[in-house]
Design a protein that fits this description.
Layout lengths: L17 E5 L21 E5 L5 H6 L6 H13 L4 E4 L8 H7 L4 E2 L6 H7 L5 E6 L7 H6 L8 E5 L4 H8 L7 H18 L3 E6 L8 H8 L3 E2 L1 H12 L9
Parallel strand pairs: 1-2, 1-3, 3-4, 5-6, 5-7, 7-8
Helix pairs in contact: 7-8
């Protein structure tokens, strides 16, 4: 017989292991995107952070966003999630302070995977990062997720790709997903052609996981993204019970 006990009187539901802080933005989130709930084989819980625009997070790096991110994380924790992630790799700016504000694991940026990937490579290999906007990615982002100078990175951005730029960064309201896929693959192809020492690719942006399969098929490199990270953490919080185990 199994006996269950409520942990809080502040909610009337359970079962959402992963909570996701999501930006106050408006563009299509296709399947595979962090912001599309059908991406996951398990339920997730979203928390939109009002006022956290792409402009304020990427271009302005507005420190005043810290407070609403912390408030959102605390709300998710109170609502029963067992870990909290983000929906933009540039949330790396707030990784340390948000993690300190709650008692559940926090992994706001896909960039957190870089130190792990680095340890899997040989000394003459590099990590390729495809980011939403390479001009906005700074040492401050890297420092907050444990990326050090010794980790060899090759960084390419999507900011010059017309469909991605207008649909995501400028939020035009529509997205040609097939065209974005071609743009991402084109950037990845150029990266490995110009830097054949790139042995693994990380997609920083939460909008790029839908195209990870295409990037892998085109380059032959392992591809990491927000979804590989989220599934990894989920598997640690909800371990598989194997047959035969008593």
């Amino acid at each position: 017989m199994s006996i269950y006990t409520i942990k809080s009187k502040t909610r009337s539901w359970d079962g959402e292991t992963i909570g996701i802080l999501i930006l106050d933005a408006a563009y299509p989130c296709v399947p595979g995107n962090v912001g599309n709930a059908t991406t996951y084989p398990f339920p997730v819980r979203y928390k939109e952070i009002k006022g956290s625009s792409i402009e304020r997070l990427l271009n302005e790096r507005d420190p005043e966003l810290l407070t609403p991110f912390i408030e959102g994380a605390r709300e998710l924790e109170a609502e029963g999630v067992r870990a909290i992630t983000g929906a933009c790799g540039f949330m790396a700016l707030f990784q340390k302070k948000v993690a300190e504000s709650v008692k559940v694991p926090v992994f706001l940026s896909s960039l957190l995977q870089v130190p792990f990937i680095y340890r899997t490579l040989s000394t003459n290999q590099k990590i390729g990062i495809i980011t939403a906007n390479s001009s906005c990615l700074t040492d401050e982002h890297f420092e907050n997720v444990g990326i050090t100078k010794e980790m060899p990175l090759v960084i390419y951005g999507m900011e010059e790709q017309e469909e991605f730029r207008t649909s995501v960064l400028e939020e035009k309201g529509t997205m040609d997903s097939d065209l974005v896929r071609k743009e991402v693959v084109g950037v990845a192809d150029r990266m490995v052609a110009e830097h054949p020492e790139v042995a693994a690719i990380l997609l920083e942006c939460s909008d790029l996981p839908p195209y990870a399969h295409a990037v892998h098929a085109a380059t032959g490199r392992p591809v990491f993204d927000f979804i590989t990270m989220i599934k990894h953490v989920h598997s640690a919080l909800v371990p598989t019970k194997y047959e035969g185990y008593m």
